[in-house]
């Protein structure tokens, strides 16, 4: 086997056709990350490389010959004449050349699996960009606006605040005395903020003026979560009173009350087409509801601790959930079956969400860390550290380029 840790500059065998270096464009990384496991399992990994990427050749003044795979690049010290002949061969022969290189490298299948994890991990490397300060108590939620330019936060300091992502400055504040805010979010057009609190009330606020538009009353206990429908016409809310309510935004009228959970309902979310609602509860279940009729469609069972979040994938085909049982679970919306469990050595998982591409998941837990996961392999691909206390919420920008998190440490952190 080749010792890649050998630092001897005279170890020419490492240089001579022993290292293939890939510098992938972001598009190629995502494609590679999505398909590598499948190719390996079907023994088509080499075919995948040869068929998906177009090979072009370029020489420099040294003896090395550089080969470009579309926007990717590798090099070898094989003779120019040999490579001239190789590049003029058919696609079948190119596959054989790649296979021969891998044989020379003596790469085992296990190394390929590790390489797959390596490539996925560096598809997007997040780092801390900004720390936003202003809240005086635990921040319970943070969410991007639909254009990704603003963030709304809600906290136990009786305020909801709006922040500019680019500058990190606070640009608006809504104050409700004697009210601990549990959640807040933007309407799809960004003009209205909806918030919910421990005082049983849902409030609508004008984004520009900062004035309250209306109060929605109906829950008999603390309201834990709120969510706008995609068209902005409806709001769904969940409460510790075990109910879910559907509201008309324009009139403030209560349209539906959904009853079925045996304990407080921690989160609610509309499906992307606004035809269903997913709810999570302290009763350890996730329920899918029909928006028009308010009827219960499916109950997802599997968690053995209270469920804190249940969210749809962007295509509406899957549900991702997290729980105090220290697991993240992926479910099929169509069948209601559990498809995958992600479980590492972390504490209670507080929040979880899909990236827009559906290939990555972000989660936060009470161990003060944020984790990024590859959906297909179920492996943790990056861990973000920095908060001083438990993390309460994590959200992804619409373009998938930024992550925002909130914490008991009273800070908001933007990662990108």
UniProtKB/TrEMBL annotation:
Alphabetized UniProt keyword annotations: Repeat, WD repeat
WD repeat residue intervals: 132-173, 174-215, 216-257, 258-299, 300-341, 342-383, 384-416
SMART domains: WD40 (SM00320)
TM regions (residue ranges): none
Domain of life according to the entry: Eukaryota
Coiled coil: none
Gene3D superfamilies (UniProt xref): YVTN repeat-like/Quinoprotein amine dehydrogenase
Protein name: G-protein beta WD-40 repeats containing protein
Gene source species: Reticulomyxa filosa
């Amino acid at each position: 086997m080749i010792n890649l840790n050998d630092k001897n500059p005279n170890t020419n065998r490492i240089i001579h056709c022993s290292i293939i270096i890939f510098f992938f464009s972001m598009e190629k990384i995502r494609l590679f990350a999505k398909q590598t496991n499948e190719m390996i399992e079907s023994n088509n990994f080499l075919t995948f490389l040869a068929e998906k990427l177009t090979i072009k050749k370029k020489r420099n003044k040294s003896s090395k010959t550089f080969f470009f795979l579309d926007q990717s690049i590798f090099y070898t010290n094989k003779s120019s004449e040999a490579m001239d002949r190789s590049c003029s061969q058919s696609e079948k022969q190119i596959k054989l050349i790649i296979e021969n290189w891998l044989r020379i490298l003596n790469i085992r299948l296990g190394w390929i699996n590790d390489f797959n994890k390596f490539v996925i991990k560096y598809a997007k490397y997040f780092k801390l960009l900004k720390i936003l300060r202003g809240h005086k108590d635990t921040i319970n939620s943070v969410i991007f606006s639909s254009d990704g330019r603003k963030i709304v936060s809600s906290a136990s300091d009786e305020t909801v605040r709006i922040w500019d992502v680019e500058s990190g400055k606070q640009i608006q504040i809504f104050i409700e005395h004697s009210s601990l805010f549990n959640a807040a979010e933007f309407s799809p057009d960004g003009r209205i903020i909806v918030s919910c609190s421990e005082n049983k009330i849902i409030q609508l606020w004008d984004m520009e003026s900062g004035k309250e538009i209306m109060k929605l009353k109906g829950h008999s206990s603390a309201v834990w979560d709120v969510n706008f429908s995609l068209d902005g016409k409806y709001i769904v809310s969940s409460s510790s009173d075990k109910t879910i309510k559907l509201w008309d935004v324009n009139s403030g009228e209560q349209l539906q009350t959904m009853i079925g959970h045996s304990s407080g309902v921690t989160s609610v979310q509309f499906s992307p087409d606004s035809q269903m609602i997913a709810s999570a509860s302290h009763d350890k279940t996730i329920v899918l509801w029909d928006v028009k009729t308010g009827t219960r469609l499916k109950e997802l069972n599997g968690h053995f601790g209270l469920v804190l979040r249940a969210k749809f994938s962007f295509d509406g085909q899957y549900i991702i959930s997290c729980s105090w049982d220290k697991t993240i679970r992926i479910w099929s919306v169509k069948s209601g079956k559990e498809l995958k469990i992600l479980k590492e050595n972390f504490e209670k998982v507080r929040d979880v969400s899909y990236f827009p591409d559906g290939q990555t998941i972000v989660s936060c837990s009470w161990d003060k860390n944020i984790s990024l996961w590859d959906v297909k392999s179920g492996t943790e691909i990056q861990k973000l550290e920095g908060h001083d206390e438990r993390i309460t919420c994590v959200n992804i920008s619409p373009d998938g380029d930024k992550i925002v998190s909130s914490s008991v440490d009273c800070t908001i952190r933007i990662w990108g």
